Amino acid sequence: MSIHANAYQLEITVQPGHLDHLQHVNNVVYVQFLQEAAFRHWTSRVSPQMHEEVLWIVRRHEIDYLASAYLHDELVITTWTGEHTAVTWDRFYEITRKKDGKTIVTAKSVWVLLDRKTFKPRRIDAAILSVLQ
């Protein structure tokens, strides 16, 4: 997986609430980590006005679970954008364990841009392109 130069990183320390009955991070929690990283990436780059005009929803997630993470592991979630269409944008992720650099998860999501007032798909225009490319 090739990480884009404009990637965003979020660090998370695994907490007891992240664990499942096997005492490793639950698969559903990884999806929450991905969504949090995507949201923070977006909000770190847009103006409050743009944030009030549009929002993103997930159409699809593809996740490869490559290793396990455990209590108190420090994880680095890296996310970046890829190809886009008129209303969708591919987003990539890589979750690594900080202490040994082990890749825990790789993922790809397809996000749809919506108008925040109508909740209908909105065309990805030049202003949106300038934020995520």
Account of the protein in words:
With 133 residues, the protein is an alpha+beta fold. The chain has a single domain (8-132), classed as Hotdog Thioesterase (Thiol Ester Dehydrase, Chain A), CATH 3.10.129.10. Helices cover 24% and strands 39% of the residues. The chain is built from 3 helices and 5 strands. The protein has helices at residues 27-45, 48-53, 126-132, and strands at 8-13, 54-65, 74-84, 88-97, 103-115. A 5-stranded antiparallel β-sheet has the order 1-3-4-5-2. The chain is elongated, with a radius of gyration of 16 Å. The protein starts with 7 loop residues before the first strand and ends with a helix.
Q: In the CATH classification, which architecture applies?
A: Roll
CATH homology group: Hotdog Thioesterase
Please compute the radius of gyration using only Cα atoms: 16 Å
> Biggest β-sheet: count, sense, barrel?
5 strands, antiparallel
Ends distance: 17 Å
At the first level of CATH, the class is: Alpha Beta
List the secondary-structure elements in sequence, H or E.
EHHEEEEH
The structural domain count equals 1
Instruction: Briefly note the structural class of the backbone.
Output: alpha+beta
Mean pLDDT level: 95
Strand residues, percent: 35-45%
The total strand number stands at 5
Instruction: Estimate the global geometry from the Cα principal axes.
Output: elongated
Unreliable stretches (pLDDT < 50, length at least 5) are: none
CATH topology: Thiol Ester Dehydrase, Chain A
Biggest sheet, spatial arrangement of strands? 1-3-4-5-2
**What is the share of helical residues?**
10-25%
